[in-house]
Amino acid sequence: MGDDSTSPDTPDRAGSRHDGDQSMRGLFETLARRGELVDIDRPVDARFELGSVLTLLDRGPAVRFNNVTGSALPVVGNLLTDRDRIAAALGVPKAGILDALSDAIASRQPTEEVTVAPCQELRFPAADVWREVVTPTFFEKDSGGYITAGMIVAHDPVTGSRNASYARIKPLKQTTGFVGIAPNHHLSALARSAATAARGLPVAVTLGSHPAIQLAACFYLGLGDDELEHAGRLLGEPVRVVKATTSEVLVPADAEVVVEGVLRVDRPVHEGLVSEYHGMYEDYGDGCTLEVTAVTRRADASVQVVLPGFAAEHSFLGALPIAAGLRHALRGFGCRATDLAVTLSGGGRVDVVVALPPEQRRQAKRAIFGCFATVSMIKQVTVVDSDIDVWDAEHVHWARTSRMRWERDLVLVPAVPCDRNVPMQQDGTVTKVGMDATAKPGDRAVGNELAVPPRETLDRVREWLADDGLSDMVRPSPTLWGLRGAPRGGH
Questions:
Q1: pLDDT score of 129 more than 70
Q2: Computed from CA positions of residues 269, 306, 135, 213, in that sequence, does the dihedral angle turn out positive or negative?
Q3: Which among 491, 477, 371, 392 has a CA at the least distance from the CA of 439?
Q4: Of 389 and 1, which is predicted with more confidence?
């Protein structure tokens, strides 16, 4: 989105990690100040209407619903729908997002336990859970309504391991819910560990924590790593946590709402159809049961929702942590990626673009296989030169069209085991594809550079257009890709 108050590469400190509050409120206030927040005061039905509003405004403003039918609290959505907002939330330039995330993956900061916390200002019995936390039904064939922004914090009483991650949660009965977790996820591993001791896994579903905490919960870390400690590194201060009221689980103290409970893998429930990140429906079969034990919240809480499926916020919450993890891992493969995108066309999960500096062009295939080895759900990888904007799908496709010889630069790897959510997988495998779209010396006798006007002339003409009141008419042209300070293959 456009932003008249701050440059995309200038962090808005008022909404950043430096305001002291570890909830989503700092970002919310920043968006309101920028004019990037709309209030919906008319009655909105949680079944399809709320999702329709978020769908229509998916690439637009954040939304606050003040009158959701059946909800005791306001509902907010579409908060982190672009990289400008994520940069503002983290207090870093947009170009520094991956650096900040990568640094947080590589290091950690212990949490700080407190005894009094905003998230426990009010306490409610388990029977009040679906009155306090709205569960919108977003899409026509979804099997029900869901909590979609619920970060699940878990504590395994057997091993002592802690975990923070996301999973969808659907109401079942008055005090129970369905939880959809892939079998290979760490939360599933902790739940199975707890089940071996004939007990459930204590968990807490938290809504409305600081975006840095939400992003850290999407990191791909080792089993037993505590994502909240890595979130502290991203915040620049320890994550404040408080002990849940019904278990030993430590929850982010500044969250808006917390649903406490026990996760039971020994009580499977069939889910039915659900929308997935790639924009289509899936039927994954059985999931786990959540037994709710209590609900706590701020006195003036809001319930956060994330539009699921093929939506910008859902994509970015996965894309940026995965991108940072990949760039960090590629260093171990000898690849110094200058930039890396997990594209929105791949739902922020399965399609990757890696930019390498000119001296590393010969490492393109190594980067491709490094990505496949690091995150199992990745289906396709394109490697480009550092003059290509990895977040610009048209620019990347231009590189494929203009710098590849398919018989030489295409890598096909058939029958690779993959996650169950990868589009077109069958029997747990999929063919993966890599594309080396870097410029090769000798491919073109006249080189690979784009024809552009002189930069000084373009700058002068921009000033003329501004003086004539025509700035709003200026639109980026693919020609201007050639001004990125590119490597010139073949020269």
A1: yes
A2: positive
A3: 491
A4: 389
Q: Return the exposure string of 148-174: e unless at least 16 CB atoms fall within 10 Å of the residue's CB, then b.
A: bbbbbbbbbbeeebbbbbbbbbbbeee
Any bridge partners for residue 341, and if so which?
A: 353
Helix-helix angle 97-106:83-90, to 10 degrees: 50
Q: Which amino acid is at 441?
A: P
- Please give the pLDDT value at position 473: 84
The pairing of beta strand 286-297 with beta strand 257-270: antiparallel
198 — pLDDT class (breaks 50, 70, 90): low
412-420: which pairs have CB atoms within 8 A and are 24 or more residues apart? 413/372, 416/372, 417/376, 418/376, 418/377, 418/379, 419/182, 419/184, 419/376, 419/377, 420/182, 420/183, 420/282, 420/284
Q: How far apart are the first and last CA of the chain?
A: 38
**221-262 confidence digits (pLDDT tens):** 888 789 999 999 999 999 999 999 999 999 999 999 999 999
Cβ neighbours, 10 Å, residue 407: 6
What residues contact residue 10 under an 8 Å CB cut-off, 6+ apart?
Answer: 93
pLDDT tens readout for residues 313-343 = 999 999 999 999 999 999 999 999 999 999 9
Give the tokens for residue 408. Answer: 């030489």
Cβ(487)–Cβ(447) below 8 Å: no
Amino acid letter, residue 141: K
176: helix, strand or coil = strand
Look-up of token digits 């850290």: 216
**Helix residue ranges per DSSP H, 353-427:** 364-374, 393-403, 406-409
CB 409 within 8 A of CB 368: no
- Cβ atoms within 10 A of the Cβ of 209, count? 29
Q: What is the DSSP letter of 277?
A: T
Reduced to 3 states, what is the DSSP secondary structure of residue 229?
helix
**How many residues does the structure list for the chain?**
491
Coil, strand, or helix at residue 314? helix
